[in-house]
Amino acid sequence: EEKLNMILNYLDAYCTTDVDFKALANSLNYSYDYLRHYFKQKKGMSLKQYVIRRRIRLAKEYLISNMPIAEVSGACGFSSPAHFAVTFRQVTGMTPSQFRENCKNIVTEGNDPIFQS
């Protein structure tokens, strides 16, 4: 568990950068293949999937704060706003703009998101 926590802490801290998974494996004295399998077994997703989901969680926080979408893209480590929008939609089922609009509607109308379709 200690090694898993070290991996998660590292990925959380550097999720907005181009994470070098092979270097991470070497720093833990693991082979890259062992690290990939170990992480997938423990977390149920690949290292890359974890990083992408972490970036999307961070992006949601920025989108709620009304940071411009192009800035959110860069701040979260995406190569371009277009790549960010495609990835965000794949993960959440909506575009960044739709997510932002839904959040505004929830706050301004006092709607409970559980009851929204």
Radius of gyration: 17 Å
State the low-pLDDT regions, or none.
Answer: none
Task: Please report the number of helical segments.
Answer: 7
Helix content: over 70%
Q: Outline, from the CA principal axes?
A: elongated
Main beta sheet: strand number and arrangement? none
From the N-terminal CA to the C-terminal CA, the straight-line distance is 39 Å
**Which series of helices and strands comes N to C?**
HHHHHHH
- What structural class do helix, strand and pairing data support? mainly alpha
> Total number of β-strand segments?
0
Estimated share of beta-strand residues: under 5%
Mean pLDDT: 91
Description:
- By secondary structure, the chain is mainly alpha-helical.
- 71% of the residues lie in helices and 0% in strands.
- It contains seven helices and no strands.
- It has helices spanning 2-14, 21-27, 32-43, 47-64, 69-75, 81-92, 96-109.
- The mean pLDDT is 91.
Summarize the structure.
The protein is mostly helical and 117 residues long. It has helices spanning 2-14, 21-27, 32-43, 47-64, 69-75, 81-92, 96-109.
Which SSEs are present, and which pair or pack?
Blueprint: H1 2-14, H2 21-27, H3 32-43, H4 47-64, H5 69-75, H6 81-92, H7 96-109
Helix pairs in contact: 5-6
Keywords:
117 residues, mainly alpha, 71% helix, elongated
